[in-house]
């Protein structure tokens, strides 16, 4: 309990004056008690576990539905008839599913879990439409800030505001004259700041735009408060950084939140040196509740040189592996900073196509990755950005014809018509977010027009070309719970946008996935995207017993009801790490 109290006190003291309500504190205590139990029992070998009594979907095409599972020492040792399995074990613990459904644990293959955990100290700006709404949310989160305290918010949609007009800091300045304000956008490609923050950063009417990025300005040349892409660093470098303890606690809080909704493994995209240190310490203390596949921040030259010298981190337990290189290449479609071959269809004069790293530098990273056993994963949004990326992959991998590269493009939102065949030939994995198609649907066609939109968010075209499709959330931006990700993938509709009678009223529904396709993309394909399909992603003999128990079978659920599926239990390596209404295993 001393650790619980200490943890809460440190969070309470974050930036000196962060406030928490009672409900939040109770949730944190619950998370910490789970972590405490989890840490106390890492070496205990539980009895065999026999699971039966419901629908068990394995994601194994050769054996898709089974009657029972037998677990031992964290792995599946037998699958089949309940009576036969019971005879293979002496007094196993029995788990009756009571008619519920058991699936392989969801794998979220593109997350920013530290940011998810850190959201507890930020104002939530998701869904705001005006600066006035932002001010209201900030005041609710920080009712009595100390003078000079940084007020942080996150979640305003730069894509939506890019269409209706970016916000101006006028109301922020009126509401918070004595506090610098940093408001991070939904996808991280824009930041919104007040006058106090701009003053700390030394941004004046005459401050030039950085080499990569843009300071948006009023007619009189004063800054509006919105900074695009890497221009955000002008201010963010002055925001107090979290320390290692806070970073570890944010990561743990984020991982436990994910466990509660059925996620058993994540791919952390863009690990910094400090992130690596925090994840490694948590692993050493056996405090990681779910599995981590790490992708390093490829834009950090010093970090990458260290890892190319040492090689990937491979773990036989698969609790923490670091093997990927996440490269931030172009910008975003919403902020008109993604690289397009032809001009933007709407307001090309407002576009600022951005390379956050040069193609030459990406080629160097690709060569070093191939030579040192790392997986490339490049953020590419626009068709030109994707074309340049695939060309780099082709040119590099032709020198390694026997290399099982499994290189990825993160997002692959808008592509050229020849992308699909080229990607399939090079063995590329398309790592895409179902929430992005839905979240961007209100303005995406405005950006690219009616022709290019046919090759945007094109999941079925990817599958049709034989490209492995990994579906994930890119949390914490859009709604990220697996049942929501599944719903978006199947319906391409907003959470309240599918009628009772129609299940295909979503945006360009011809690119929707079937429920089995979506489930595979969220489990076995995501395991494949981390070289872990022999260990997790499906329920087969010899694999780790990572699974989720939900109240209904998603395959027989109406598409419009997928978002309402309820996670009952989450298991990792044969241990129950979450149970609805009770976090303690009976």
Describe the 3D structure.
The protein contains 21 helices and 22 strands. With 586 residues, the protein is of the alpha/beta class. The strands form three sheets. Strands 1, 2, 3, 4, 5, 20, 21 and 22 form an eight-stranded mixed β-sheet that branches. An eight-stranded parallel β-sheet has the order 6-13-14-15-16-17-18-19. A six-stranded mixed β-sheet has the order 7-8-9-10-12-11. Helix 14 packs parallel to helix 15 (419-426) and helix 16 packs across helix 19.
Question: What general form does the structure show?
Answer: globular
* Proportion of residues in β-strands: 15-25%
Biggest sheet overview: 8 strands, mixed
**CATH class categorisation of the domain at 114-236:** Alpha Beta
Would you report the number of β strands? Answer: 22
CATH fold-level assignment of the domain at 114-236: Diaminopimelate Epimerase, Chain A, domain 1
Pick out its properties.
586 residues; Diaminopimelate Epimerase, Chain A, domain 1; single chain; alpha/beta; 8-stranded mixed sheet
How would you briefly describe this protein structure?
The protein contains 21 helices and 22 strands. By secondary structure, it is an alpha/beta fold.
